Amino acid sequence: MPTECNPSLLNFAPVESRSVVASFDGGGITSDAGALLLGATDRVLSLTRRLASCFEDSRNPVFTEHAIQTLVMQRIAGIALGYEDLNDHDDLRHDPVMAVLASKLVASRADCAPLAGKSTLNRLELSKAEPTRYNKIAADTQAIERLFVDLFLDPSFGRSTKLRLAEPWASVAHAKTPPQITLDLDATDDPLHGHQEGRFFHGYYDGYCYLPLYIFCGRHLLAAKLRRANIDAAAGAREELIRIVRQIRTRWPRVRILLRADSGFCREELMAWCEGNRVDYVFGLARNTRLAPEAETEMQAARAEAERTGKLARRFTDFHWSTLDSWSRIRRVVGKAEWTQGEANPRFVVTSLNVAMIDARRLCETIYCARGEMENRIKECQLDLFADRTSTATMAANQLRLWFSGFAYVLICALRRIGLAHTQFARAICGTIRLKLLKIGALVRISVRRITVAMASACPCQHEFALAHAYLRRAGA
Fold it and tell me: pTM of this prediction?
């Protein structure tokens, strides 16, 4: 009798005299079951609903299958789950868990999938400021920019969690106005490999790129502004800060704001604006031939100490200083005289904080050096959430891509803060959270009364998942 053979089976090496076969006939199976936590987080924040309201939809509802909120949820959840390209959604539109997130299990037309494919999502990314004949979706860019700050200020952004974090302003679920917040600014390169609008060669980064501006408060993203690369690092920073500080002070009029950035933002117009608007600042100050002698005495003392002990030596000097013509006034400058590995390593910062408020050592080591943590947040956005995937032809479309990536970061950051605060993932990066908690295999069964997601029994992070679910349910209650 001939052996029955199924050509769709994939045969692998036998184990303990048993044949090992595989095939793609499991039915409603997903590899992204953990995305249910993203949906629960979104319900706490109402993020996708609020973002969808920033778009004007002029499509004829008779011929519209996928609502704006469905498209927005699809795009943001896709990025959070590791799908950087719109092409991925030609398969994801059939994924049962993605359909659950979008609250749309069945299409109204027989020839459509429950969710949108790459072409429909592309129309969302190509939104103009006003609807056109060929693109009926328009984006209100000012409303999108405001939404980042509104989410930061929103008391529903994680209520009832009662966290204890290192930064007093990082919890955001404020029962009362925080006494102080710190805004970190930084610019980074976004490498380009095509002929996108606005591309320029940047000598420092040695390549064609954009130069986006990021503004964070702790772990919270407040602004992600795409810019051409043929500009100063601080270009446009003052305008962004005016907008953000105005929003914050509308809600928290008495909050004290400290601005922190490296020497690329040490510009007269920015410092003068801070001094005129009750905003303190700590900026790096590039060393020059006039600054170096100010720290020479302390540098020699540090050198003598290092040679005597054989260890790194660090001393600080505090003085008032001004440039020859670019600054409008004399300002406080703190110098760090460091002798390490047999050579001098001087550093300087300029600040509006006076000596009575903070001494030189603490200003440098505790306040200014903490600025480097922001670079880890930028890495999360670019490496884990594809913020540098700006391959569309126009800057407007690439700016929307950057914002979608930013909102994916906001969503995972909220999941981390609300649901994972008391777990091993409380300070995990977005990539780790995705790998451990979102990428879970499951069998999805849909009946008349219930949608059952049977997740893998061998999942190693079941306890953390259940705890996150409980916290998110409490926060959304």
Answer: 0.92
